[in-house]
Amino acid sequence: MRIALLAHLRHPVARPFAGGMEAYCWALADGLMARGHDVVLFAAGDSDPRFSIDPVIPLHHERSFPGLEHRGDAGLVAHVDAGYAAACDRIAAGGFDVLHNNALSRLPLEHRRLAEMPTVTSLHVPPYDALRWFVTDSLVPGHQITVTSQSQRQIWWPEGAPSGVSVLHNGVDPAAWSFRDRGDGSAVWSGRITPIKGTHLAVAAAQRTGIPLTLFGPIEERDYWEARIAPQLGGSIRYGGHLSGEALAGEIGRASVFLFTPCWDEPFGFVAIEAMACGVPVAGLAMGAAAEIVGEAGHLVPPDDAPALVRAIGDALAIPRTIPHARVLRLFTRDLWLARCEALYGLARRAA
Fold it and tell me: Residue 66: pLDDT band by 50, 70, 90 thresholds?
């Protein structure tokens, strides 16, 4: 198939990934190409040049409009809308079999756009006002909508999801997150360093248990980092930087427990399955989809119970490493995910 992939534009779709949406789109383009598809990635122009890139905007907008993602800035909105509108026109005229839409934009969801192109839209966020109505109004023939978890589907459609909405769990390549049969006794945390990811809670829990903890990921909110995280560094708490690929997999895989501390309704939890693939059990907070994703591979506690999170670390350390690894192989591999994507493309094309 000739497939158009439409990405979010805040960051480039390139390593090291700024977050899960960038990792998702990169893995999707890479995986579909490996399965023989002709893929064009419509993304920020400074995305990974190994892909065939059709730039929606020349550079990711965090560079030209820093810090304005969630502030309703009129200049940023106009810039992004113009880019997406022109990209949708090129997709409609580009001879594509299907569009896989991963953008947080209303424009690919317009009825006239959906009539032009079989579309699969993957929702990576909880519902919010600027997008909710356009999503619920877009369920027309030829449009398939996916969410990343049962939990996320319930949040979007509390009265029950309509036909055309399905759960598409994310997947990782087990070969890229190699299993290790033992850890070194330390804890690890990975993700965007920002309050909603709960980095400070992981630090506090590790300090209470005395277990060494290494943090990995981009510093998204500098004030939060300087006030809540940087003062805690030293001794058993360290920051390992923003790594990707084999380097990050190696660092995570050598740990004995992964701390997963979302402070919002996390739609999935990519970082959790990356650690689980390496055999690292999870101690964390039961927020969003965490319980659905982690299952028997960890111990989760209520978000407002700090002592329980400390106990969860000890409980998770007792889980055999084969258990999280086996859960990923059963439910969350890249091959399972990509096969499901291909099936959804087929459904969209047949219904269009």
Answer: confident
